[in-house]
Amino acid sequence: MILSKIIKAVKAEQVAGRQDLEISSIAFDSRQVKPGALFVAVPGYKADGHAFIASAVKSGAIAVIAGKEAAVSASGVTFIRVNDPRSALAAVSAEFFDNPSGKLRMAGITGTSGKTTTTYLLRSIFRKNGDRTGLIGTIEYNLDGETFESKNTTPESLTLQELLNRMVTKGLDSCVMEVSSHSLALHRVDGIEFDAAVFLNLTQDHMDFHGTFEEYLAAKLKLFGLVQGEKTGPKVCAINSDDFRAAEFIKAAKAPVLTFGFNEGSDLRAVNVSNTQPGLKFDIARAGGLCPLNLKLKGYYNAYNAMAAAAVAAGLNIGWETIKAGLEAVENVPGRFETYKSPAGFTAVVDYAHKPDALQRLLEAVRGMGAKNIITVFGCGGERDRAKRPMMGGISARLSDFTVITSDNPRNENPAEIISEITGGMGKAKFSVVPDRKLAIFEAVKMAKEGDVVVVAGKGHEEYQLISGKVNHFSDKETVLEAISDGGKWKE
């Protein structure tokens, strides 16, 4: 693509050099630069891309976008100065890949908890509707069967636009994606033309990044200004009316709103709810009557996720028979309330819950299913929001009969210090401290009796543990199955 066309996508404050250069690729990591590339110098968490401009030019970059004055002395290299390189990266990536989101039905889901499950439910509805559907989220990036490792819930804008372009090339019709607060604050989804946006809930999280709850809220609200654009066809903003911040999301919406919740006044309302061992049963009450559902997913909170997916589909003019079929077809979501029955008669549940609200919902759901005793194993991640550690300790203390506190992903923090902050919220509750996560799971399983439930929370689908800068293989599911096995005899 000719550089002059790419430059038109950004608000350049200065352009020095030729604009008729043919750009073969874009990179924001100097190690990924190839001859003929445009290099965007993005300030990162640990390194500033401006420090690698010379390296990028040496590797073959013929144009550079930067956010401050930078010396580019190599012959034939064009320098473009912009106010915000991150925003510019999103704009030039969309332009370079010919704005692929405009050729797909795009649905973005945001909220503190439930994003992953909602994307799986909505993808199932789209598929029942005949769509070839891509998925971008915490577990994987899935292009209708072609999968890529998920390194971020929402990838950097260049990666995101490339994925969407691959979907278009493969002939996909739609894409459902998790939209994290980080991605909204860091301009990763700038330039995406969404047909639908979902707000699930908002509770404290990521204060290590956003600083304040209001900044966290402001990031989430940005998604609802992106449901507009030149694409024709229906658009919708699905909003959880039970959340105390719902009014602010409704105000931010740039498209018709459909609300969902348990309270009267919601456009879609959950009634006759029953959380059973086989799954969740409830009816969606709507203007046209009731839609009875027998979900295979468990937990009252999944009624919100199902209604969110249903609201998007209904807002996009998908019929209720298709919505029902899509929701009921989802068997499970990896690492979300995965249940295993032991030969001794107790149950183990593996779940990704690693935030206060998610842990509370998980334990309430387990208690609601008639658990005799709940034995919870969890820890908190290092180098992340420290304020939630005692909060999660308090939640487990209140909703569990016994807690085994362990390590999650301590990263470069001292595990003992993380655990100490968790125990600060435990009060007089019964708990033990076992820093080794495998031993912690084995201890909890050893304690369990018939009718009890062992809840292993925090890592879910993850198959690694980050300790002292090293990535170690670790799977809660594998460890649970090993712990509860009786000569390898266990069943889901």
List the helices and strands and how they pair.
Blueprint: H1 3-7, E1 12-16, E2 25-27, E3 37-40, H2 53-58, E4 63-66, E5 78-82, H3 85-96, E6 105-110, H4 115-128, E7 133-136, E8 140-143, E9 146-149, H5 157-169, E10 174-178, H6 181-185, E11 196-199, H7 207-210, H8 213-221, E12 236-240, H9 246-252, E13 257-261, E14 268-275, E15 280-286, E16 289-294, H10 301-315, H11 320-329, E17 338-341, E18 347-351, H12 356-368, E19 374-378, H13 388-399, E20 402-405, H14 415-423, E21 431-433, H15 437-447, E22 453-457, E23 464-467, E24 470-473, H16 476-484
Helix pairs in contact: 3-5, 4-10, 4-11, 10-11, 12-13, 13-14, 15-16
Gross geometry: globular
- Percent strand equals 15-25%
Number of domains: 3
Mean of the pLDDT scores? 93
Intertermini distance = 52 Å
Strand order of the largest sheet: 9-8-7-10-6-11-12-13-14-15-16
- Backbone structural class: alpha/beta
CATH fold description of the largest domain:
UDP-N-acetylmuramoyl-L-alanine:D-glutamate ligase
Biggest beta sheet summary:
11 strands, mixed
User: So how many helices?
Assistant: 16
Gyration radius, rounded: 24 Å
Q: Considering the protein shown, what is the CATH homologous superfamily of the largest domain?
A: Mur-like, catalytic domain
Total strands: 24
Q: Roughly how much helix do the residues carry, as a percent range?
A: 25-40%
CATH architecture of the largest domain: 3-Layer(aba) Sandwich
The poorly predicted ranges are: none
Q: What top-tier CATH class of the largest domain fits best? A: Alpha Beta
